[in-house]
Design brief:
By secondary structure, this protein is an alpha/beta fold. The chain is built from 23 helices and 16 strands. An eight-stranded mixed sheet has the order 1-8-7-3-4-5-6-2. An eight-stranded parallel beta barrel has the order 9-10-11-12-13-14-15-16, surrounded by five helices. Helix 19 links the parallel strand 15 and strand 16.
Length: 555
């Protein structure tokens, strides 16, 4: 039996499975308390404070990357906005465990609905919630084996950093989770440990406990009861693959010298080191939501300046593209209240929200202007019309920012890309949302996953419209959706005319190698072949026929 997910930490790991299942019960809906509200609030606050202290202590013990992650999670446990929500729910009569559960679950759902980097923080919020609820009920959290007879494969629906921070390669052979993504903390800690990991693997928790499992952190394959010879062959192939990828160094370019800067998608200052270490040539998408979410008031301009300055200093010779605040009704901000919306994905998101609360954007653009250099580019999310693009460009220039661009993630923007490009200096395609809106398919629903396959020919057609308009206008058009992390699709995007590619840092080596092994003409042939097909599977197969070196590289 084989399963398949997303490989996020390369290498081969094998051993008996240890399936970690959550055991913290959900507090009964509507559960109330006896006694005084203030006493119940004190009980909740004491539990939150204790959990925060335990997380920070565990981070201090772990050190390294895990320490920063756990300290950030400890701060989240005492976030003022969440504390206010818990206290408010207790005032309405809910018992402390239920109040904590509801407050943190709503925040978790908000993050999960946002997708990308922020979506992958949802597991951290759920972990805090479960730890506090368990403490209030006097229950124990599930634990992992500390001294196994042999390294095991840790399997879970999702893993929080507190579960994995104190593990080592001597204890765990690999991680497999049903949820998560390339920038989830499971992925970050696994890479720091040098342990293979596969995330977003459907059916993983159905693996029987104790069954021997082989995990390929490069391909995403999870194989049950593999033969010893298969394990040896896979390990040798993985070693050879990593050596081959490591031999590709330098700036991104095709085999015949067509330059394609390879940039990183970054969700905050804590990810800058990973991007630099992976050889990114700059930042193609700097998400700024980390500065705003979960707060009762907007961040000070100085705090924003420091975060933006850190990004520029990390890449002294590279472009840094900062996306302005992208929040909406599915990612509410306490200091930007809006009425409830029946369909948040189609409501006041991104630039629409910024225009309604211009003081927030003005403060953000002011902070960016204060640290700006010729390498800084600023772009707005969720732009639908040329009028919106022109408004954003004027606003940026009024603040002294010279390079203003917009995201193309709504079909109308792709269809009228030429009009948008007349107003701005560059565009960047967000394939995740563009797919969601093109196919009327919620990106958060697993049942819609087939429509979110980035090889869908209709999606490639929208990308071609945008890149073609950019070529006619003589302006750059990059790709910053995670679809660019697929080496074959990266070649297709270059064949369609993409000027830059931005992705999770972990994908850069494979994309650099895949692109460098093929000429620009091969990329163009692959793009043409893919667009001629009717299905995503056929598009992928047709493109790979024109990219023969991918198989040799194990990509």
């Amino acid at each position: 039996m084989n399963l398949r997910g997303v490989g996020v930490s390369p290498g081969i790991g094998h051993g008996p499975s240890y399936v970690m299942s959550a055991s913290v019960p959900e507090p009964p809906e509507g559960a109330t308390y006896t006694g005084e509200a203030e006493q119940e609030k004190e009980r909740a606050m004491a539990a939150l404070t204790r959990v925060a202290g335990e997380l920070e202590a565990r981070g201090n013990q772990a050190g390294g990357e895990a320490a920063e992650i756990l300290k950030a999670q400890a701060l989240m446990a005492e976030d003022p906005g969440l504390v206010v929500k818990v206290r408010s729910l207790i005032d309405r009569g809910l018992a402390a465990p239920r109040a904590v559960f509801e407050a943190f679950t709503r925040y978790r759902e908000m993050l999960a609905g946002s997708g990308g980097f922020l979506g992958e923080r949802a597991a951290d919020v759920a972990d805090i919630r479960d730890r506090v609820v368990a403490l209030l009920y006097g229950h124990s959290m599930p634990v992992v084996p500390a001294a196994p007879a042999e390294p095991y494969v840790l399997v879970a629906r999702d893993l929080a950093p507190a579960d994995t921070a104190l593990l080592s390669r001597e204890q765990v052979a690999a991680f497999v989770t049903e949820e998560g993504g390339p920038t989830s903390h499971t992925a970050i800690i696994a890479r720091a440990m040098g342990v293979p990991a596969v995330v977003a693997c459907p059916g993983a928790t159905g693996i029987p406990p104790g069954v021997r499992v082989m995990v390929d952190g490069s391909t995403g394959e999870v194989r049950l009861e593999p033969a010893d010879a298969d394990v040896a062959d896979a390990a040798a192939a993985a070693t050879a693959r990593q050596a081959a990828l490591a031999s590709w160094q330098g700036p991104g370019a095709t085999a015949d010298g067509h330059e394609v800067p390879l940039l990183a998608n970054v969700g905050g200052p804590g990810e800058l080191a990973d991007a630099v270490g992976a050889g990114a040539e700059g930042i193609g998408l700097y998400r700024t939501e980390f500065l705003f979410l979960g707060r009762s008031e907007a961040p000070a301009e100085e705090e924003q300046r420091e975060a933006y300055r850190a990004a520029l200093e990390a890449f002294p010779g590279g472009t840094v593209v900062v996306r302005t605040l992208d929040v909406g009704a599915d990612k509410p901000l306490a200091f930007l209240p809006v009425p409830a919306e029946p369909n948040p994905a189609l409501g006041e998101r991104g630039l629409r929200r910024s225009r309604k609360f211009p003081e927030v954007m003005e403060a953000q653009l002011g902070a960016l202007a204060a640290v700006a250099s010729e390498r800084l580019q600023v772009m707005a999310p969720m732009v639908a019309t040329a009028e919106e693009a022109a408004w954003f460009a004027r606003t940026c220039r009024a603040k002294g920012l010279g390079e203003a661009g917009v995201m193309i993630e709504i079909p109308s923007a792709a269809l009228r890309a030429a009009d948008l490009l007349a107003a701005v200096d560059f565009v960047s395609i967000g394939t995740n949302d563009l797919s969601q809106y093109a196919f009327a398919a919620d990106r958060g629903l697993s049942a819609m996953s087939a429509l979110h396959d980035p090889w869908q020919p209709a999606l490639l057609g929208l990308v071609a419209m945008a890149t073609g308009a950019a070529r006619q206008a003589g302006k750059p058009c990059g790709i910053c959706g995670e679809a660019a992390a697929d080496p074959a699709l990266a070649c297709v995007f270059v064949g369609l005319g993409a000027s830059t590619l931005s992705m999770a840092p972990s994908a850069l080596a494979a994309v650099r190698a895949g692109l460098g092994a093929h000429t620009l003409e091969q990329c163009r042939q692959a793009a043409r072949a893919a667009r001629e097909q009717d299905t995503a599977a056929d598009a992928r197969a047709a493109a790979r026929e024109h990219l023969p070196e991918l198989d040799r590289l194990g990509l």
